[in-house]
Amino acid sequence: MNPKVPIRKLVAEVLAELERLNYAENTRNTYRRFYNRLIAFADSIGETVYSEDLGNKYLRMHHHFDLDIYTNSSHRTFRGQARCIRVLGDYQLHGAILRRRTTKAPYERTPQFAEALKSYQKECVCQNYSEQGMRTRIYRAQLFIDYLDDCGMTSLSLLTAQHLSDYTRTIAGYHKKSISAILTTLRSFLRFLYLNGYHEKDLSSDVPKLKQPHFPKIPSAWKPEDVKRVLESVDRGNPNGKRDYAILLMVARLGMRVQDIKEIRLTNLNWATRSIEIVQHKTKQTVSYPILDDIGWAIIDYLKNGRPKTESPHLFVRHHAPFETFGTHANLHNIITKYTRLAGIKLRTGASQGMHSLRHTLASVLLEQETPLPVISEILGHMSTISTSVYLKIDLEGLRKCALDPDEVFHHDNI
C-alpha cells in the first residue's frame, strides 16, 4: 500500500472496508466519530498524511497514552482507541483489517540457539506433524533451550548427559504423562541435533526412560436423556441458535470432531448423495458422513435463515463481524457450556464437559446397541480399534451382563 495516501482518503477506505466486512452500523459509527476527531487534530497541526507518529500524538494529547505503552492488560477504556488507531495503520500497510488477539508475547529465541531451533521447526514440518503436534514439540524444545541458556551454555555442541540429567530433575514434579511427553520430545530434538551436525554424539539414548503403563482414563459420557435436554434447550429462533443446534447435532449424532466441523466447506456438502465428504484434520483420511434427516434440516435452516452474509467458503462462521470461520484453536467449549447451563444439567465432579464428551456418549450408546468395535472405530474416525477399546470401560450394561453370580459359582464348584 502507498503510505503517502491522504488521511481523509485512508479513513474513507477503512470505513468502506468495515462496511464490506458487515461490521454493525453502530460499530462503524464509533470508528467514524473517532476518525473525525483524528482528522481535526491532524488539520490543527498541519498534517495531511497518516503515520503511526501522528496516531500516537493524538492518543497522548486526547487520551493520555500511546501504543508504545499499551498492552492487553491496559485498562479497557484504552482498548477502543488503540483498536481504531491500529486498524488505520494495518490498512495503510497491508490493505486489510487484521484481527489482533495476541494473548502473550511472542517467544524470543536465544541468539546462540536460534538457528538450531528454526531448523528443528522446519524438520517438524517435513515430518508432517499436525499443527497441534508441531506446536507442542516446538514449545517443549523452547523450554529446554531456555534452561540451557539459564545455565550459561553458549553452544549446543557442549551439551552433555549431565545437562540432560539435571534438566530431567526440573520436571520431576510434573504429571507422569507430561514428563513422558517432554522426554519424548527431548529425544527427538537430540536426535535431530546429531543428524544435522549440531552435536558429535547422539545423546537421545542418555535421556532417562519413564515407565508409563497404558491405563487410559475412562472417558466421560452423558446420559442420552441429558443430550436430548441440551438439544431441546437451544433457541432455534435466532441465528446463533440455528448454528449451534446444527453443530451439536453433528457431534452428538455423527461423532464428528470439532476441528472437522469447523473446517466443513459448503463444497463438502453433497446433497445428491446426502453426505458430508471431508478429509479428517487428525487422521488425514477421507471420510463420508451421512446427512441424517434432522441434521440436513438443521443445516438448511441455518443456511436459509441464520448464516450471515459472508464470502467465507466454510459452512459455520462467527456471528460477529468480520464473519469469518472460527479460529484455529477455537474448541467451541462455550457452546456446549451455554446449553448445559440452560438445560439445568449438573455433571458429576471431574467429568468432561466439552464437545468431545458427546463423542464418548455416542460410542457408549453404540456399544450398548452391541455395535462391533471396528464399526465404532470407523464412525469415530479412529485409526485403530485400540483407540476405541477404551470405551468398553463405560459400557456399564455390558459389564453387568458379564458379572458372575456367586451362587452359580459355588454350585459349579460342588458338581
UniProtKB/TrEMBL annotation:
Signal peptide from the UniProt entry: none
Key words, A-Z: DNA recombination, DNA-binding
InterPro entries: CB (IPR044068), DNA_brk_join_enz (IPR011010), Integrase-like_cat_sf (IPR013762), Integrase_catalytic (IPR002104), Integrase_recombinase_N (IPR010998), Tyrosine_recombinase_XerCD (IPR050090)
GO terms under biological process: DNA integration; DNA recombination
Domain Core-binding (CB): 111-194
PROSITE patterns named among the record's database cross-references: CB, TYR_RECOMBINASE
One Pfam family from the record: Phage_integrase
Record domain Tyr recombinase: where: 217-404
Name under which the protein is recorded: Site-specific recombinase XerD
Organism field: Desulforamulus putei DSM 12395
One annotated GO molecular function: DNA binding
